[in-house]
Specification:
The chain is mainly alpha-helical. It has 57 helices and no strands. α1 (17-23) crosses α9, α20 (344-354) packs parallel to α23 (384-395) and α25 (426-442) crosses α28 (482-491). The longest helix has 24 residues, at 910-933. It is globular and about 105 Å long. The protein starts with 16 loop residues before the first helix and ends in a 39-residue tail after the last helix.
């Protein structure tokens, strides 16, 4: 913690001394040093943690027993051996710094001396931990990580601003827990102390203002007012000193300022913003200039923690509509259950509207639509202020909507929430329509005309793009009260007229609405656990009788059919760039396109290139090259020549230039910025980059460039970016998906092997030939799709997949050389009626294995059902092939499960009943096996270990079990151990005819026991001279 570290700051100071003590890691002293992450005994060893600890071990072994000077010389010499050794030492020192606070200063000093890459290895690892592991970090490591970021900033390390922005992203909105406040204070302390450094990065200035303006709202309680004042002072200072750098935030800056405008200092700034804009900056003409600027995804995304973002993206790309309740419940418990979390709903709604823009394929699938999540969020608002702010967040892009600059995707959720809520939740539709009407005169009276025009533009564009065929059924609906309908007619007369009288077309268009009503009648709510399925487009009802309809089918067609139109963008470029872009538009052959594209790349790499043009240029390129992103990427016949030819497209020129640069080159980051902007406009560019990095000779060994690309995008996270790109590839081109799979798994093992997300994408679309091809790749060593620490979790996840997907998954697993013991615990999750695919694959594999005690334990731990033959069938096979081994394991398990304290057993306490349940299961399975073997010549139940175990159990179990399993126990009726005195049995030796028939000829060790007369039957065999039967009649069945 801060206290343990020499010369380090003493920690947060604004919440009072007692709270400061609480914020510092209290358990650090008690925890064993060297571990980074909090984990339970059930968690598999984390691969990142394992690697970092290994590097730490290497580093300490180099310096052990050496003086400080000798140690420096030793690690310097080790670093010089090569890149791998350099990385080991840097990560080793980094890990020591995190886990050993007393050594932090020395480790940081050593790190600055020995690193040869400008701390790049460490910066990348910090970013990875922040994006993927921050919530799991031990408290002492979390504190140390913040300290390290502070030191990096103080040292002016290039790239520290990016790390600081990632750290800022971890400060959760709507959360005033001790940990979150500590993080918010720590980051603010860095920003205030290193203000001169902060001012050098325009993006950091804007991002920190956006972050702390948003957080001010959460810190209104009396004990947090001193901290809030520091946040206010910080924001005011930057807004007044660097307003045009904050201006890049766009219209959401106004939204955040409105919410805090009652704070005195903010009120003064607000008045200047409205009435004296020139006092903030000579280039600032007034609030309308800010309101017409769309907010970048980067800002909207920065107010969700990586975990929130991952969960939301999962819900909008993987969860089927109707199956969302458990995911929403989890999210609500985790993030929306406290009073202060009301403010988080605005962040979530702005993120969904502005960042989550599903592809046409997702829109036309049965994936949970955005409007349903927003509808659910609106229903969870419990205060009027929160509800009002949430509605403003939903309609915010409507108010100054410009079809040429803004996206249909930003305004589409609001209209669809109203449309789909009309039947099940008319109150939600009514309140949203009422808000839409009242916001026009009340948002900012001097701009009422512009707001009215913005809302009108939005509604017009919604109809033009056929999101809804008509607005009259929504605006003039009998479910709305008379006053609201009257206000809608007054505000929007153009949209309240009913469609023309019934015609053929009218009949077609009205059918879907009838269907919507029909479906909705079955279900009261579309924001809870609903099985309802809606048609999002009133035009689509071509498949009669089918429950699910395509959503936005016409929207997809509209986009595809439009010719390339760069008119709205090209005039914003400077003359030289504009000239090249127009050449691209006119040129026809690929070679000319490539030459012009190279010239464009050269232009943007010049020092005087204005970065403000990047977004506009990206819009032009995305529009001009949209034809390149249609059709198959992978050649029909894969040869070196065909692959090289396939990557000779203009857009690949950017990739090629990127591959030829050093990653620390400033030109590298400029090209990454261009790609990131392009990615926002054309998401397919992600998997096209992956293809280029695999297919092109020029990109050999450069696959790691994709990670830099992912971090440069608005997503900023390798895992999320990779999964979204592979999903886009899966939807567009399955052959390409299979082609990329080996490279993706080998280059990004941490992202692909830790969960079943990518695997599910693959098995959901491949055919049997592609499955066989992937299996061959595994056997040839080109592909690893499973690893020991995560395979069990992935197979458990796969239990919910389709039958072919499951069989494919098991085929791919079985072709790996992973011991079956690794995944045998899955048996506890398998139900015989629900999971036949997994059970049949396991059965075939277990058949080939020698039984270990763990295998037998798992097989016997399955609940007994008369119809479930899994356990009996595998036990029978083992009894035939490995009878002695199986006998020993069953004996050990029976005795172990029967060894509960006798007193507690006799008292029949609840714990003994639990113990007997397990024992009861084993006896049920053994009795089933006995019955199954009764008509065979198998002598499994005549083995000494089995008889000893049965006798042991019989001696201690209660009368009910003795009666229930009397046939089983009768097998050991007359057996006795030679070490004990013979005692007369209370029970008569005779048993039921079934048991005598089922009893196989018994063979006993002659030294240990006397032959029992019960073994003499019609088909009895000569007595064996050894303790166990060896290979007698083992395969008669």
């Amino acid at each position: 913690g801060f206290k343990q570290r020499p010369k380090a700051p003493s920690g947060p100071v604004c919440v009072g001394a007692a709270r400061r003590e609480e914020m510092e890691p209290s358990s650090a002293k008690g925890k064993a040093q060297g571990r980074l992450l909090v984990s339970t005994s059930l968690d598999a060893k984390d691969e990142l943690e394992e690697r970092l600890e290994r590097c730490m071990s290497i580093t300490t072994s180099i310096t052990n027993g050496l003086s400080e000077r000798e140690a420096n010389d030793a690690i310097t010499a080790h670093v010089c051996k090569g890149p791998q050794q350099h990385e080991e030492v840097c990560l080793g020192l980094f890990t020591l710094l995190l886990t050993e606070p007393p050594q932090a200063q020395r480790c940081y000093r050593d790190l600055t001396l020995v690193n040869r890459d400008g701390m790049n290895v460490v910066l990348m690892k910090i970013n990875q931990i922040l994006m993927e592991k921050f919530l799991k970090l031990q408290e002492v490591c979390r504190t140390q990580l913040v300290w390290l970021v502070k030191e990096l900033v103080k040292s002016g390390v290039i790239g520290a601003d990016g790390v600081l922005m990632t750290l800022m992203k971890q400060i959760a909105g709507g959360d005033i827990s001790i940990k979150n406040l500590w993080l918010a204070e720590s980051v603010l302390e860095i920003l205030v102390e290193q203000r001169e450094w902060v001012l050098k990065s325009g993006m950091l200035v804007a991002m920190s203002v956006y972050t702390y303006l948003r957080l001010i709202v959460d810190h209104g309680t009396p004990n947090l007012l001193p901290f809030r004042q520091r946040e206010v002072d910080f924001c005011i200072g930057l807004l007044r000193e660097r307003f045009m750098e904050c201006f890049i935030i766009g219209r959401d800056l106004v939204r955040l300022l409105q919410i805090v405008a009652r704070i005195p200092e903010m009120e003064l700034l607000w008045k200047d913003l409205l009435h004296n804009p020139q006092t903030l900056s000579p280039q600032f003409t007034g609030i309308l200039q800010l309101l017409t600027a769309r907010t970048s995804r980067k800002f909207l995304a920065c107010r969700l923690t990586p975990d929130m973002e991952t969960k939301l993206l999962f819900m909008t790309s993987r969860v089927r509509f109707g199956q969302q309740k458990r995911y929403q419940d989890w999210f609500q418990r985790q993030y929306l259950s406290t009073a202060e979390s009301q403010s988080l709903r605005c962040d979530l709604i702005r993120y969904i509207c502005g960042v989550v823009h599903p592809s046409n394929e997702v829109l036309s699938s049965d994936i949970l639509p955005r409007w349903a999540i927003i509808g659910w969020l609106l229903t969870t608002c419990t205060s009027n202020v929160a509800a009002s702010n949430a509605k403003l967040a939903l309609f915010y892009d409507w108010l100054f909507f410009n079809p040429e600059k803004d996206s249909i995707m930003n305004i589409e959720p609001a209209i669809l929430v109203m449309h789909h809520s009309m039947k099940p939740h008319p109150a939600i539709t009514a309140t949203l329509l009422d808000f839409m009407c009242r916001i026009i005169p009340n948002f900012f009276p001097p701009l009422e005309g512009q707001v009215r025009q913005g809302v009108f533009n939005s509604l017009n564009f919604i109809m033009e793009k056929r999101v809804l065929a008509h607005l009259a059924p929504l605006f003039d609906n009998p479910k709305l009260d008379r006053e609201l309908r009257s206000m809608l007619r007054e505000r929007f007369p153009e949209f309240c007229n009913s469609p023309s009288p019934p015609t053929e077309a009218k009949m077609e268009e009205s059918l879907p609405l009838e269907m919507d009503n029909h479906v909705l009648d079955k279900e009261d709510g579309c924001y809870d656990n609903t099985d309802a399925t809606f048609s999002d487009d009133e035009e689509e009802l071509n498949n009669k009788g089918k429950k699910r309809e395509f959503r936005f089918h016409q929207l997809k067609e509209t986009y595809i059919e439009e010719p390339a139109d760069i008119t709205p963008f090209v005039d914003q470029l400077d003359e030289t760039l504009k000239e090249r872009v127009l050449q691209l538009q006119k040129g026809s052959d690929t070679e000319t396109h490539c030459e012009v594209m190279q010239e464009i790349v050269d232009l943007i790499l010049e020092e005087d290139f204005e970065s403000e043009q990047m977004s506009t240029l990206a819009s032009c390129l995305a529009e001009l090259f949209k034809g390149h992103f249609r059709g198959d990427v992978l050649p029909e016949e894969i040869t070196e020549e065909s692959l090289e030819e396939s990557v000779c497209k203009p857009v690949c020129l950017i990739f090629r230039n990127l591959c030829q640069m050093q990653e620390d080159n400033s030109s590298f980051s400029v090209l990454l910025d261009l790609l990131a902007e392009l990615y926002q406009k054309q998401p397919k560019i992600g998997y096209h980059l992956l293809y280029y990095l695999k297919a092109s000779k020029a990109a050999a060994g450069k696959m790691s460039l994709y990670e830099s690309f992912a971090q440069a995008t608005a997503l900023g996270d390798l895992h999320t970016c990779l999964m979204m790109d592979m999903k886009a590839c899966q939807e567009d081109d399955v052959r390409l998906l299979c082609y990329l799979t080996p490279s993706i798994y080998s280059e990004f093992p941490d992202e692909t092997l830790r969960s079943g997300e990518l695997l599910n994408m693959i098995v959901a679309v491949i055919d049997s030939a592609q499955l066989q091809e992937l299996m061959c790749h595994v056997m040839m060593g080109n592909l690893v799709m499973f690893r020991k620490d995560s395979v069990l979790n992935i197979l458990i996840q796969s239990l919910d997949w389709e039958t072919f997907e499951q069989y494919s998954t098991w085929q791919l697993f079985l072709v790996h050389s992973i011991p079956l013991e690794t995944i045998i615990p899955i048996l506890q999750h398998l139900k015989y009626k629900e999971h036949p695919e997994a059970l049949s694959c396991l059965l075939l594999q277990l058949r080939r294995e020698k039984p270990s005690e763990e295998m037998v334990k798992m097989v016997l731990s399955r609940p007994y059902h008369l119809e479930d033959q899994f356990t009996t069938s595998i036990l029978r096979h083992w009894a035939a092939k490995h009878d002695d081994l199986l006998g020993e394991h069953i004996k050990a398990l029976l005795i172990k499960n029967n060894s509960m304290p006798r007193k507690r057993q006799s008292l029949r306490s609840s714990s003994s009943k639990l113990a007997q349940l397990t024992l009861e299961q084993m006896l049920e399975h053994l009795d089933s096996l006995r019955l199954n073997l009764s008509n065979t010549k198998n002598n499994f139940f005549s083995q000494t270990p089995i008889l000893q175990a049965l006798q042991h159990v019989q001696a201690s179990c209660d009368e009910a079990h003795k009666m229930r399993f009397s046939d089983l126990f009768s097998l050991a009726e007359d057996y006795e151990d030679s070490t004990k005195q013979h005692k007369p049995r209370r029970k008569a030796p005779a048993s039921s005819p079934r048991s005598r028939k089922g009893a196989a000829p018994q063979t006993c060790n002659e030294e240990d026991s006397v032959s029992s007369s019960a073994s003499e039957e019609e088909d009895s065999k000569p007595k064996a001279s050894k303790r166990k039967r060896k290979g007698v009649g083992s395969d008669s069945d």
